[in-house]
Amino acid sequence: MKSPVTSITDEQLAEIERFLSFGGSTLKIHAGPLRGLIARLRAAEADAKRMGTALSQIMAQVDGNIRPTVRDIINGMPDANYIYDYCDQIDQIALEAMERKA
Predict the structure, then answer these.
(1) 68 domain-assigned
(2) Which of 93, 48, 98 has its CA nearest to residue 66?
(3) What is the pLDDT of residues 28-75, one digit of tens each?
(4) Distance CA 68, CA 75 (A)
(5) Residue 1 forms part of a structural domain
């Protein structure tokens, strides 16, 4: 699925920051809030990347472990309790992704 919003590059953000440094007095009044917005954009981009990575890892766990284990259970294979380990791994991936990184 494609993101509905186009990412802004680090280079574009750096260019905006340079512009703010050399702007006139009117621009300098607004430079602080704009720098705050740039910082929030960078944090949001990092969050989106981290969540995308986690989602990919979770999908790999589901496709590579959960589905085959469920198939084994349906086919009567004994001792499929290891599915809980896979679920724990998915939980850990999600928890780590949700932790805010500095």
Answers:
(1) yes
(2) 93
(3) 777 888 889 999 999 988 898 999 999 999 999 999 999 998 998 888
(4) 10
(5) no
**Cα 95-99-102 angle, rounded to 5 deg:** 155
| Tokens at 26, concatenated | 């009117």
Separation CA 73–CA 54 (nearest Å): 27
Query: What are the φ and ψ backbone dihedral angles of 5, each rounded to 5 degrees?
Result: -120, 135
Q: Give pLDDT, residue 92.
A: 94
Tell me whether residue 25 is in a domain: yes
Structurally, the chain folds into a number of domains equal to 1
Query: Which domain covers residue 52, as residue numbers?
Result: 10-98
d(CA 48, CA 101): 12
Residues 6+ apart with CB under 8 A from 99: none
Residue 81 lies in a domain: yes
